[in-house]
């Protein structure tokens, strides 16, 4: 073995645990004969951990995770309305904390309509685009507060923070990606209303565009972008957008390409200063948890993104192909582990 | 004539002028034999006016408009990228200024899939819901700014302002509407991330809910809501949400119900202190302007909303029925005025 990859595995809550189990099996299978060994550390984090210990993500957890080369995450979140979770915000306290602390400034979310995948659109056409969602600023920074709380005079503010530094690095990433794809980049924002945050995004996209004369640049307001996602998704190649618009667009994109059961994502720190984190776009789905009903495909495709990020391009491509073959040929409903079995069988075929 | 309604008509730019012409014809036709007279004043506002005079909306314009009972608006906005409009923001300076100055705190956007309407979904099911979008606060307030502008150290902030006062009045409106419909209300927000603005929305919805025990209350994060809009739109009855999420959801809702060529809206001041304003959800579409290609249906359905708001329920229902009959029976492509002719013929049949 010439190389060891230290992988932090965070199964999380609900179906996160079930899908990660299959993703790990796929990872093991595809790397079994290679010369890279994965050394895994399992972290118990999420609503389950919070209910046991009261912790969301301690400094020790964070330091331990940071010492890894990459992270595989399932999903986190308890049962909605669980009174014991009333004062916890697992999303901000754990998931977003990891994205922010590990400077995951690129939230990479590919959307592809695989042959055979079910989808809600009558004539979807070819869908193959990537959303490059900014991951460390915008409306997600948590800069807000409330006065006269709980009274009829309450005022709650929430500030979106957008920096030239933060935008430029993610925009550069998006242009480079577009250059390796179909040379088309669409900025999505709401510049006609959010004039300050919109103007800085527009200025920086224009500036970086001048260094990429081959890339055709387009702009859409976020509302119009949602229309095109259902009426003409083929028009998109790379979309670059802020944290909140990216959140919205990628769920919708997942839906139009067969459901978020298939949507993978990478939270990437391209500098390599911190480990990048790979996770399905879906949540922990407490309503179907523990029943082996969840589709592990999104988690398995997240393994493909992880392998690609680690430079293991052949392995990534093999996982991707196995999943595509599986999607093309699904018939009877399967349990989570049967789906894993099927994909592993394709891998080994 | 026992009653005179003073109507301000703002055709605006591009196809706005063409669709408003048909909407006015329909209004004239449906009120011809009634005992309400519409006294119309035409206002030239929008990109065209700005290019001529440099004004977006002067104090005099505003005072004059305010003295009317209601407003019919087409669409505003010039050609994207027109260098002469670089320093203008017609949307903020005119459209949003009207919504804010006239305290249009309810932005009412019905979404209905009419029999025969084309749509992108393979199995849409029955779609019939209304989005009650807050219209005077949230991320739309324009409270923001930038420091070190144009430099690599620029920081642009944009603050969403949410008040108990502003939220409570629109939430009350939404609950009352749900009570007159199918008794279901869905709050859409992003409470797990936008904790401050999300918490105040949630608190007020819970509080008003206690006065409406018959209304079943549901909550969805905005990203999940976009998924359901394409996978299960029948689940919605009344959606209440903030200004930005409402903007996004209603464009998507328009798309799934046959395109924003059919989507009407009312900017309503329920108190009656200021005139309410009715407009199609679509924009001025400069690319097809002046060619009589635009579908005037959304503008005509906006007339139905206007009539309903004025208490002319029979007339509103007649317009609505004429449009539904027309949609059910469209065949060959028609010009904007031919579409107007067809709907007027149905009205008079
Ligand atoms: C769980 C939530 C905080 C998260 C987000 O909003 O980013 C999720 O929706 C996602 O898209 O990964
Ligand atoms: C033109 C724009 C300012 C407007 C909005 O964002 O409200 C439009 O998109 C709408 O939905 O009426």
TrEMBL record, chains A, B:
Amino acids binding substrate: 99, 109, 133, 223
Listed Gene3D superfamilies: Isopropylmalate Dehydrogenase
Gene Ontology MF: a single term: NAD binding
Annotated cofactor note: Binds 1 Mg(2+) or Mn(2+) ion per subunit.
Cofactor(s) it depends on: Mn(2+); Mg(2+)
Subcellular location per the Swiss-Prot or TrEMBL entry: Cytoplasm
Chain residues that bind Mg(2+): 223, 247, 251
GO cellular component, one term: cytoplasm
Catalyses which reaction(s): (2R,3S)-3-isopropylmalate + NAD(+) = 4-methyl-2-oxopentanoate + CO2 + NADH
EC numbers: 1.1.1.85
One of the protein's GO biological processes: L-leucine biosynthetic process
The organism's place on the tree of life at top rank: Bacteria
Domain Isopropylmalate dehydrogenase-like: 6-343
Residues marked Important for catalysis (site): 140, 190
Record pathway: Amino-acid biosynthesis; L-leucine biosynthesis; L-leucine from 3-methyl-2-oxobutanoate: step 3/4
Binding site for NAD(+): 283-295
Entry's family note: Belongs to the isocitrate and isopropylmalate dehydrogenases family. LeuB type 2 subfamily.
Function summary: Catalyzes the oxidation of 3-carboxy-2-hydroxy-4-methylpentanoate (3-isopropylmalate) to 3-carboxy-4-methyl-2-oxopentanoate. The product decarboxylates to 4-methyl-2 oxopentanoate.
Entry protein name: 3-isopropylmalate dehydrogenase
Organism: Microbacterium esteraromaticum
